[in-house]
Amino acid sequence: MELSSNPVFTFGVIADIQYADIDDGFNFHGTRKRYYRSSLQLLCNANRCWDQQLIKPSFILQLGDIIDGFNKKYGASERALQTVVGEFSNYSTRVHHVWGNHEFYNFSRSELCSSVIDSRVHCVRVGDGVMSDDVYAYHFSPAPNFRFVVLDSYDLSIIGREQSSEKYKKSFKLIKANNPNDNLNQPPGYNQWQGRFVKFNGGFSQDQLDWLNKVLISADKKEEKVIIVSHLPLHPLSTDSICLAWNYDKILSILNSHKSVVCVMAGHDHDGGYHLDTSGVHHLTLEGVIETPPDSDAFGTVYVYEDKMVLKGNGRISDRLLMFQ
Asked: At residue 138, what are phi and psi to the nearest 5 degrees?
């Protein structure tokens, strides 16, 4: 795909690194191979590519699951995190970290809020830009007329929340009402979209939805183009149903009511996915590094123009032209 000259800005994107210093293994169901050690080398490949580009990315979006949950079992969570963050730190580009389920397998929410992957420190937290410290959601503008909104898709969750908290109780009630299995990582099988009600997914509180609506109202008035960033995919046609956010329907209703929203970028589904919805919003789910063989790659660079975004993919990730409607 040919690139036009002089993009407004560029950024790198990578998802589901899930690094662990352990031998290769398989997913929960034993059907998909995972390359735990070599995921670090694939991140190194991505960083080297971004660093050598003529137009270096303004920032990197790391879409969640930076290290694997197995690190907790071996007491290696902090060491693994420092290893991956250290690889990012070899290059000067700023990284915006999204939190996924594997972050919460390794750390409590309070630990993450004071960690090196709390990217809110990059932002001026004033006005409608502030979400409560309890919720990892924020927005930033890398260039005039463009805004990125990072969402906390585990705001409602039974991982990462104290069992005594109201959000945990609400989340547990919600998942049990939709999943009769004793093992809540086993999806219910009686409805295609019902499969999203599993322990490794989550959703958005009403407070976060209200905050998002206010941010988008402001973006509409400023005639900005908004890219939504989430670990969990938000459209059922952009992912396997087992990877979908619990209350995707509520957040889609908000996104589709605002002319400013042009794209949603997510991870979690290691196969990736894409859908252009009826409102002209691109829903792009990035393929995961963790299930990418060592002789391939899984990262991309996005070139942003006034009328489009161009994704130049590497390895498993395909090139895409994302025109703004």
From this structure: -160, 170
